[in-house]
Amino acid sequence: MQGKLRALLLAVALTLMAAVVLVSMRPASAAGLTRVTSFGNNPTGLNMYIYVPTAVAPRPALLVLVHYCGGSAGGIFNGNGHDYVSAADRYGFIIVLPEATRSGNCFDVSTPAALQRNGGGDSTGIMSMVAYARANHPIDASRIVVSGFSSGAMMTNVLAAQYPDVFSAASAFSGVPAGCFATTNGSLWNSQCSGGSISRTAQQWGDLARAMYPGYTGRYPRMQLWHGTTDTTLAYPNFGEQIKQWTNLNGLGQTPGFTDHPQSSWTRTRYGSTTTQATVEGISIAGVGHQLPMTGQLAYAIAFLGLDGGTTPTPTPSGSTTPSGATTLVGVASGRCLDVPGSNSANGTQPAIWDCHGGANQQWTVTGQTIRSLGKCLDAPLNATAGVKAQLWDCTGAANQQWSLNADGTIRNTQSGLCLDVNRAATANGSTVILWTCTSAANQRWTRR
After folding, report:
1. Alpha-carbon span 157 to 108, nearest angstrom
2. Which residues fall within 8 angstroms of residue 274, CB to CB, at 6 or more apart?
3. Phi then psi for 33, rounded to 5 degrees?
4. Mean pLDDT for the stretch of residues 309-322
5. Is residue 119 in a domain?
6. N or C: lower Cβ tally within 10 Å for the chain?
7. 47-51: strand order across its sheet
8. What is the pLDDT of residue 325?
9. Which CATH number covers residue 301?
């Protein structure tokens, strides 16, 4: 059994290693990843790392980010979790990164100690890290969230089940239901669960999670679940079993209230609330194995978890992804949305492009010739010349706030005659939006969704 476990862990580690290497040369963040050596009760000897961005929000959210088997805090920080780090720089939230130290670097979601609140397993040490962060930073207690990949996704399910009074939301990439990996022989690997052969009713899964915190009667976290349909490490049936568990814990039925396809290979279902911050959300990725998250996916998790400036998206009608009368403006060249950074509605805030996530800071209302977001108007500075940045400003009705949305996809300012343009045809998150001579190039064309 242990030989099989080591082989499986090696396969997972090798699969993920390539992704980590590809991004290992990214520039370091302005702030650094810091190890904390004394943070409280730590019965299994985990390492704790914390990331505090240079600019921290007055009441920052806290993200617990949990790595995969064979991984490390530094690996996920610089690797496939780096979009979370970029978002922390942008929105000012803090990240705690637990690191498993046992052979194989997997988190224990199997033993009896691991599957009980304050039971003395890995989850106990992780919650000491959360307590440390709260004691040393002005954390917004209503925005403590958790996300993880593979082994970290399994731990995400367990933490959300054991500490529903702490976590407000969770996002798990390629995981299994809380309690599914339980063993009685000391092994950390459960082949039946990993193979997707354990199936229970929603009530049974819910009861298994509730047993981790006996007597608790409060609400459970919102849960976002991601899985590839061809995953053979933690088989795809676990996706549906997780949905059963979290809909039951949140008092919901098994029929989604909303289904769409944000990308052609994705099927997204929502249960309970049908907004960006649904009660339970599942995203199934066709033809993809154990390799999540993939490019652009963490932007959806950031919005779901409420890490994008603390903005709660405006409620939407059933079957719609934006408020009535609002639209997103998607750059043709980049595939990214016109975005108000940090949901900052102050006069002079300069829009940029960012991965589309449906948040209120990407929703624009076209009324007559004005384009509005967050109660402000899209504005061209007076006497604008080519290269000047677009901005938000109090609505005045003046010609510098009037725009024409043209048949070729360009958005032309009435006063200056210049078009809304992504500077230097850039396509990366955070690229500046300026005014430029109209050319109808792809970086000046926008589609409405």
Report:
1. 12
2. 257, 258, 316, 318, 319
3. -80, 125
4. 36
5. yes
6. N
7. 33-36, 47-51, 94-99, 62-66, 144-149, 169-173, 222-228, 280-285, 266-271, 258-260
8. 52
9. 3.40.50.1820
E strand or H helix at 209, and its extent?
helix 202-210
Q: What is the average pLDDT across 217-232?
A: 97
The two structure tokens encoding residue 387? 């290269």
C-alpha distance across the termini of the chain, in Å: 51
Among the residue ranges 23-27, 31-35, 139-143, 322-326, the one predicted with the least confidence is 23-27
Residue of 123, 128, 150, 151 marked catalytic: 150
- Which amino acid appears at position 172 of this protein? A
Q: Tens of pLDDT along 46-94?
A: 999 999 999 999 999 999 999 999 999 999 999 999 999 999 998 999 9
Say if CB 423 and CB 432 are below 8 A apart: yes
Q: Determine, yes or no, domain membership for 189.
A: yes
Please report the pLDDT score of residue 309 as a whole number: 66
Question: Which residue matches tokens 């076209």?
Answer: 366
Tell me the chain's radius of gyration from C-alpha atoms. 23
Is 168 part of the annotated catalytic residue set?
A: no
pLDDT band, residue 311 (cuts 50/70/90)? very low
In a domain, 12, yes or no: yes
190-194, 253-257, 322-326, 366-370: the lowest-pLDDT one? 322-326
Please report which helix (H) or strand (E) contains residue 208, including its range.
helix 202-210
In terms of domains, do 172 and 134 share one?
A: yes
Beta strand pairing status for 352-354 and 280-285? unpaired
Q: Please indicate, yes or no, whether residues 222 and 367 belong to a single structural domain of this protein.
A: no
Task: Kindly state whether residues 236 and 134 are assigned to the same domain.
Answer: yes
Identify the pLDDT of residue 143. Answer: 95
Q: What is the mean pLDDT of the chain?
A: 88
Residue where a domain stops, chosen among 276, 305, 334: 305
Q: Helix count (H) and strand count (E) of the chain?
A: 9, 23
Instruction: Tell me whether strands 280-285 and 222-228 are parallel, antiparallel or unpaired.
Output: parallel
